Every structure is written in C-alpha cells, then in structure tokens.
Amino acid sequence: MPSERTHCVNTGPTARTATGDASAPATAEGESAVDLLGGLDIETTDDVAVPDRLIDQVIGQDDARDVVLKAATQRRHVMMIGSPGTGKSMLAKAMSQLLPREELQDVLVYHNPEDGNQPTVRMVPAGRGREIIETHRVETRKRGQLRSLVMWLVVVAVLGYALFVAGEPLVGIIAAAIVFYVFRVGGRTQRASVPNLLVDNGDQQTAPFADATGAHAGALLGDVRHDPYQSGGLATPSHDRVEAGAIHKASRGVLFVDEINTLDIRSQQKLMTAIQEGEFSITGQSEQSSGAMVKTDPVPTDFVMMAAGNLDAMENMHPALRSRIKGYGYEVYMDDTIADTPETRRQFARFVAQEVARDGRLPAFEAAAVAEVVLEAQRRAGRKGHLTLAFRNLGGLVRVAGDIARAEDAEYTTRDHVLRAKRRARSIEQQLADQYIARRREYDLSLVEGSVVGRVNGLAVMGEDSGIVLPVVAAVTPAQGSGEVIATGKLQAVATEAVNNVSAVVKKYARVDLDEMDVHVQFVGAGEGGVDGDSASVTVAAAVVSALEGIPVDQSVAMTGSLSVRGDVLPVGGVTYKIEAAAKAGAKTVVIPAANAQDVLVEAEFREQVDVVPVSNISEVLNVALVDAVEKSSLLDRLSAYAPAPPGRDRNRRSGPTPAP
C-alpha cells in the first residue's frame, strides 16, 4: 500500500516584509493591515480615540459588561469567574465610576473616657473629617502651650523656693521632677481628645474603590496596632491605634477581591457578616496583641462586592458567602475568546491605543504594528475565527514592543519592534521548553531521523503557550499471567488510560491476544514537562501498534491527538504550539486531528519547516507514521474494515491541500 501523506495544510499567515508598510500582505488570504484592523485606516494609534469611561474601554466581554451596568444601577453584588487577564479587575474599577453618586462620609474614631478599649465612632459628611481633626489639633496645641507655660512656672518656683528659701536643693529637684511627671501624664488626656480620621473621603470624586486582593485579615477587616508602651504615661490611646480595613474604606463604593478563594474561611465568614449587616466593628486581629482588647463601635460597610477568580474559586469559596452574592447579585463567566470580525478587530486596535495611553511612555504604534498584534491575538486564541481575550498577556507584548522602540529613540513602534518583542517576551514555559529541546539534542534524546520500532515522537504542552516533543516508547512481551500495562515514572495512570482508549482498536485487528501480552510504555523525559494523557493516546496507540507488528516508525514524524474506542482521532488543544515545538526539534511532518486543522496559526520562521497532516482515524495515523513494508500494507488492509476512511477520501491517494485557516 502506498505511503503518501494524505493531507497538508498551510500553517498560518504568509511571510511579510518588516518595513511597517500598511499595505504589506498579512495573511494567506492576502489581507492587508487595513483589513486586519477591520477597515480602520489609520497611520498610528494616535489616530484612535480612547473612551474616557473604563466601562467603554472593555473589549469582548459584552455579557459581563451588561451585568456590571445593571449591577451598578441597582447596587448589586457581582462574582466574575474566568481565566486570568480577561478584564475582571478593569470591570471592577469601572463599577466604581458607574455607581450612583451618593453622599460620602468620613469616619472619625474618638477616645471613650468611660472605657478606653471601646472607642466611639462618628460619621460626618466627606471633607468635614479633616476640618474636625484640625480644629481639635489647634485647640490641643493651645492648651498644650498654656499647660507647658504653667508647668515651667511651677518648676521654676519650686526650684527657686528649694534653693533660696528652704536651702534644700535635692528636695527641690525631686519636687520639680514630680511636677514635671504630673503635667506630662495630664497632657496625655489632652492628646487623647484628638480623634482619629479612620476613613477619609474628602478628595473622592467617584465612589470609593478598594482592592482587597490577597489581603490578610487585618487589611481586609481592620485592625488595632500593637502598643509596646502600655504604661508609665507613654501608652498610645486605643482610638489612635485603630486602622480601617478595605471593607470600611469601600463603604458606599466597590470592594474588589480577586482570587477570593485564597481568603481563609474565617475572613470569608466575617466578610459575609459585613455584607449582611452593612457595618462591622474593628478589633485587633492578633490574639497576642494589646489591640485584642480593643473593639470599636460598628463602622459602616455599605459596599458593593465584586468577587473574582478562576473556576476553582467556587470550590474553595465559603458556600454562605457565595449564596449571599448570588442571592443579591449576579454571577458571570468571562469569555476567553471572541469572534474575529471587522468590529472586534477595530476594538483590538483601540486596545493597543489604550495601552499606549495608559502607560504614557510608549511611542505610538504604526498601523502595521497594530496589525501584527491582531495576528498574535488570532494565534493565541487557538481557534479559527477567534481572537484571544487574555489582554494582560497581550498588553505585555505591547509594552515590550514599545520599550524596544523607546530604547532606540524611535518615533513610532513598528511591526519589526513587535516581532522582536514576541521573541523577547517569551514566557517562562517557552524558555524552559527551548532549553529542554536543546538538552535533549545534546544527549541524543530527540531522534528525528531514521526509523525505530515502538518509538513515536509525541507532542505535549507546557504551561499554556509552549510545546515540547515527548517521545513515547512501547514494548510488548508475553504475560506471565493476565496482560497488563506497565509504565515507568509518574505517568503510569496516563499510559494506562491511553492504552485502554486504544485497546478496542488493537484487539479488533491484532493477530495476538492483547490480554496475553504485557504492554510496557515509557514517556521519555516526561519529568521535564507537562503531559496531557488524553492528547497522548494517538501517540501511545502508534507506539503499541508498531511494537505489536514489528513495523518501524518514521522518526521524522511527530503527532498529537486523542483517540476514541472506534479509532477516530479527536481534537486536542495547543496544536499550534505543538507544531512549533516539532519544528524546533527538527521533525519534518506533524500529524494532527483533522478537526484542529482550522486552528493552526504557526509563526513564519517554522512555517516552511514542517508538513502538517490532518487525520481522522488511526489508519491514517499509521499510514503516515509507519515505514513502508509488506507488514504495513497488511496492517492497513485489516484496519480498513474496522476504521474505514471517510466518504470521498482515498487513503492511498494524496488529496489536495485543505484551505488555509
């Protein structure tokens, strides 16, 4: 049976010149920079208008934006769940601009002469707090000056009498010291009359916004500082040691807590109380501190809660707190990608302009540079016809490109600056993957030439945006008892699952009884990177079949894909990064699921290095991966009855290339 490759796909945008020319072709379809910008005909980002309101700067999160607008009108709580960097904190800040303008208050804490450990709390209109504090300070200063004058007159009189009248200088000195101490202790009472400005909203033009992400209990709920001087007239009045928490500073505004599940359970319980009661007393959070005895009157906590987190946030979140937010507000899931349309492309051009304006130090981006950012957004989306909404990482690319341009004193940031930034702004996972590949080459672990029985170059993803080549080696031996899967290292469960997925196919066509064989599987060097067991099932299947049939595998072929029990190749994630990893390792052909063909957007430097072959079933995988031999033809003939080729496709005849994604 012939061994031609079945399909090849174009792997991304065609190469372009790096001159920053807006008319340069941008994609395989011949899109210009103007097309990539959704028809936006600009020279630089200086020509793009940036909205004043934060809510109008939000891109791609239409559902979340609508929820925030409704929640702001009705003062409802909101919980946003989604991937990091998709705009949760931006929406929270936008909420503070949208809340109805209410009469803000300053919060003052006064000394309680009846019980020094229970300071009293008073609310006054915003701005009045400073005036009251200054008035008390002026009065205290005047009283202190008068008290000091009287004290020194008394001290001089005592010393004069003791020296010149009584003739007892030692008694006079002792008496003067006693007078000084009495006046000093009495002055402490005067100092305690000055209140502590706990919450100051005097300069607040919009509703308050408090970011309590990662805050410990004291920063979130308020605290009372420890006083090392608790006697001898040096003690600090308790009301002066009271500190407001984020829940108090956010009153009549927005309290934002990202990764809310990282708060300990006790803090979540107290946060729920603050939401429910609308007020919360401040006490010392450390049981060993002198502030543990202090507890103020209740302080207002009339805030709107904006909670955020990843999907795991809901698992570790206090159920009563979540119920409180859900029952009196909204829950919204943040999108990871958005449909790639002319309108959204124009929004991405505005995003670049927003980042430049927000930073304030970056040169404006030329149109071709912005188009390159849009292309990167397409690539990072991992889906055909979509753009990524991970704006924090994309904004990092914008800032690195701008920094490169600024370091060169360039007037504008060009496309070349963006291309260089993409290489420089590699993630830690990408850097580790590159080092990993280099080390494997040094020790001849990356075999990409010749053919070997039972060895297949699989592909995996490290982190979110880095691929690695992960060889899988299989050997089949007669079992002493019932057959089993034997895997080395931490990936035994992965190997077992992968073999179980392919066992139905193997048992259907194999000449031997798999139940009487031991299948040994090893992921070579798997400790260096991540492995997705499901996406490794095609690789494991090819290695096991090669070992069973004794047919060598072409080592210039790398592959990824999930396999059903019927032998169908199912789609997986990260195909673009896996293809690039295969190209870096020196592979010539990459087998991917046919369903992922539309998701391929490979960087230009790797585009001509590999042929990408989309496949739909295990027979196509083996047709590409196994070396031509009589045994291969026999194997594929047996497989054809179990996993026939899709209608209209001849497995033995090369098809034309599928359209570029």
UniProtKB/TrEMBL annotation:
Which residues are catalytic?
Answer: 535, 578
Q: Which family does it belong to?
A: Belongs to the peptidase S16 family. Archaeal LonB subfamily.
Q: What is this protein called?
A: Archaeal Lon protease
Q: How does it sit in the membrane?
A: Multi-pass membrane protein
Cite a single GO BP annotation: regulation of DNA-templated transcription
Primary residence: membrane
**What are the UniProt keywords, alphabetically?**
ATP-binding, Cell membrane, Hydrolase, Membrane, Nucleotide-binding, Protease, Serine protease, Transmembrane, Transmembrane helix
Alphabetical list of SMART domains matching this protein? AAA
- Write down the PROSITE patterns for this protein, in alphabetical order: LON_PROTEOLYTIC (PS51786), LON_SER (PS01046), SIGMA54_INTERACT_4 (PS50045)
Tell where it localizes. Answer: Cell membrane
The record's region (Disordered) falls at 1-26, 641-661
Which GO CC annotations does the UniProt entry carry?
Answer: plasma membrane
Matching NCBIfam families, A to Z? lon_rel
**Which parts of the chain span the membrane according to its record?**
146-164
Q: According to its UniProt entry, what is the function of this protein? A: ATP-dependent serine protease that mediates the selective degradation of mutant and abnormal proteins as well as certain short-lived regulatory proteins. Degrades polypeptides processively.
> Domain Sigma-54 factor interaction: where?
163-328
Q: Which InterPro entries match?
A: AAA+_ATPase (IPR003593), Lon_arc (IPR004663), Lon_proteolytic (IPR008269), Lon_Prtase (IPR027065), LonB_AAA-LID (IPR046843), Mg_chelatse_chII-like_cat_dom (IPR000523), P-loop_NTPase (IPR027417), Peptidase_S16_AS (IPR008268)
